[in-house]
Amino acid sequence: MAVGAGGKKGQVTPHMNVTPLVDVVLVLLIIFMVVTPLLSKQFWLELPKQEETKTATPEENKSVVLTVDKEGALRINGSPIPKAELKDRVTRYMAARPDKVVYFDAADDAPYATTVEAMDIARQGGAKTVAILTKKVVQ
Questions:
Q1: Structural contact between residues 86 and 125, judged by C-beta atoms closer than 8 angstroms
Q2: pLDDT number for residue 26
Q3: What CATH number has the domain spanning 64-132?
Q4: DSSP code of residue 6
Q5: Who contacts 111 (Cβ-Cβ below 8 Å, separation ≥6)?
Q6: Does the reported pTM lie above 0.85?
Q7: Are 126 and 94 a contacting pair, CB within 8 Å?
Q8: What is the rounded distance in angstroms from the CA atom of residue 72 to the CA atom of residue 78?
Q9: Whole-angstrom distance, CA of residue 130 vs CA of residue 139
């Protein structure tokens, strides 16, 4: 009951109760504070270090490079290879290499299904890492 209000004597004046509103706002604040750190996504990317002082000659470069051209033809180190022989060839290359890395290069307009299938076959052939090349390979 309000004392000294301008209303009639003995009449109760209405007051807004903000306690439930404050409770709800504080609960929402706590929920957002807990959920916000969980929303950040991290994507770790390992980029190869590029040496600018020394350029490797084809004899020194013993990397295995799997290439898919725009027609979907597969090549390993520049030599064409049928898809049926890809797994066996990669298995032979990986048996001689301690790092088990296949570098993968595809043309921009290469068929998507063929590129994914080539990477899967390379993994089945024993490649532990399929590294995507960011620059074109000179062959």
A1: yes
A2: 97
A3: 3.30.420.270
A4: S
A5: 68, 72
A6: no
A7: yes
A8: 14
A9: 19
Nearest one of 95, 98, 102, 96 to 123, comparing CA atoms = 102
Within 8 A by CB and 6+ apart from 123, the residues are 130
Backbone phi, psi, residue 48, to 5°: -70, 145
15, 18, 21, 22 alpha-carbon torsion, rounded to 10°: 180
Length of the chain, in residues:
139
Identify the DSSP state of 99. S
| Of residues 67, 76, 64, the one with CA closest to residue 100 | 64
> Nearest Cα to 77, choosing from 88, 87, 67?
67
Cα separation, 129 vs 123, in Å, equals 8
Render pLDDT for 65-110 as a digit per residue (tens, 0 to 9).
999 999 989 999 889 999 999 999 999 988 888 888 999 999 889 9
The string of pLDDT tens digits covering residues 32-77 is 999 988 887 777 777 777 766 555 444 444 788 999 999 989 999 8
Beta partners for residue 64, in sequence order: 102
Closest CA to 103 of 72, 134, 138: 134
Cα 9 from Cα 6, distance rounded (Å): 9
- Whole-angstrom distance between the N-terminal and C-terminal Cα of the chain? 92
